[in-house]
Input
Amino acid sequence: MTQLGLPGFDPPTPTDRLMFLLYPDAATAERIAGEARRLRGALGLRGEPLLTDRFHVTLHHLGDYAGLPADVARKGEAAGSAVDAAPFEVVFDRAMSFANRPGNNPFTLQAGEGHEGLVAFQRRLGLEMAKVGLKPDKAFVPHVTLLYDGQVVPVQAIAPIRWRVDRFVLVQSKLGQTRHIVLNAWDLAG
Output
């Protein structure tokens, strides 16, 4: 077993990531998949679009761990349960790459105008996270990753893709397995 903090020992390799996410409804996820295929062909991208059930907006990253840390998951559940918010609409009206991984750049849908409800919700969730001792993400660029590619694509206007957000989830992502396990989900009321 790997020891933490001792000289000469490597820390364990993370196997799990905890995140708060928004998933689009099934019809919207299909529209996103169609737009990913269209843009891939139009722009000559080679990366394969993500599976339809993997499209999401990451609200907050709670950390990467070797195994599932029950204490962090409990705090995440407490923060999620404390959020009181009404449903809101999100709109993604542009596509572009993040150029932060040479040769493997995320090509994403991004929000232009009208994403105030999403930003406000992300901040509200962050406040609840801080109350239970979790560190919320301060930087937030609302986006949905479509695929990964070697090319860096500048901003492209697209026909707006919108959906009504009425639910958010706490997810355990199994790193390297493209698998999400929903630990808890909360409906937005109002």
User: Anything to note?
Assistant: The chain has a mean pLDDT of 91. DSSP finds three helices and eight strands in the chain.
